[in-house]
DNA sequence: ACAAGGATGGACT
DNA sequence: GTCCATCCTTGTA
């Protein structure tokens, strides 16, 4: 993964992450679904300006941004240029599947990482990861191969700016959180 | 100090 | 399809 990969707007980074490999302590797989969140985007955590929670989004590109939602789930983002971020929404498991099964108490491969909360649990994402650089352990990222067919659609689970087509996925993948 | 609501997932009808 | 657990963050007084 080139050093400047994340030093671009989230809207440019998000589709390029489809097909990339993400590992955390050796556990992970192929990123098959992402969403872009930008600074002047009412749905973005950075929209109201700097706060304690969104600190990593204002701390520069190439960092992990981890937040807690609905009192239950953790979600993993990669920070980009201009206080943007990309939400990692689904992964096709390839490495450390046994550990994912243990963490998720779930044996169906399609239910291990098919959603932002699920993949966070399967990969052991928690507050300890917040703000960490993406090019250092325990994180490992490898760029996608060329020729990836990317599907585009509106983002999921938001009420503000819900019509923007800023969700990206690997076309035809069986590991998405939802169909496009 | 307090109330509102959320980038979800699992259980259930 | 509907319902809702559960708690952190944020805006407001």
Name its key features.
eight-stranded antiparallel β-sheet; 180 residues; 3-methyladenine DNA Glycosylase, Chain A; alpha+beta; DNA-binding
Describe the structure in your own words.
The protein is an alpha+beta fold. It is 13% helix and 28% strand. It has helices at residues 10-16, 97-104, 116-123; strands spanning 21-24, 27-37, 64-69, 73-79, 85-95, 139-142, 150-153, 167-170. Strands 1, 2, 3, 4, 5, 6, 7 and 8 form an eight-stranded antiparallel beta sheet that branches. Helix 2 crosses helix 3. It is globular. It binds a DNA duplex (13 and 13 nucleotides) through residues 35, 37, 43-45, 48, 51-53, 67-73, 75, 77, 85, 87, 89, 115-118, 155-159, 177.
């Amino acid at each position: 993964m080139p050093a400047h990969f994340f030093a671009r707007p989230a809207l440019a980074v998000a589709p390029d992450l489809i097909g990339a490999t993400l590992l955390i302590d050796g556990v992970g797989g192929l990123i098959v679904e992402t969403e872009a969140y930008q600074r002047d985007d009412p749905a973005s955590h950075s929209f109201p300006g700097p706060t304690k929670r969104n600190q990593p989004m204002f701390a520069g590109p190439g960092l992990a941004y981890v937040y807690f939602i609905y009192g239950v789930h953790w979600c993993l983002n990669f920070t980009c240029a201009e206080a943007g971020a990309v939400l990692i929404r689904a992964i096709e498991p390839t490495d450390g599947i046994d550990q994912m099964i243990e963490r998720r108490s779930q044996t169906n491969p399609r239910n291990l990482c098919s959603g932002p909360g699920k993949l966070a649990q399967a990969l052991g994402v928690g507050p300890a990861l917040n703000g960490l650089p993406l090019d250092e352990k325990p994180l490992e990222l490898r760029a996608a191969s060329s020729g990836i067919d990317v599907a585009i659609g509106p983002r999921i689970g938001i009420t503000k700016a819900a019509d923007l087509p800023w969700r990206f996925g690997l076309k035809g993948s069986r590991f998405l959180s939802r169909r496009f």
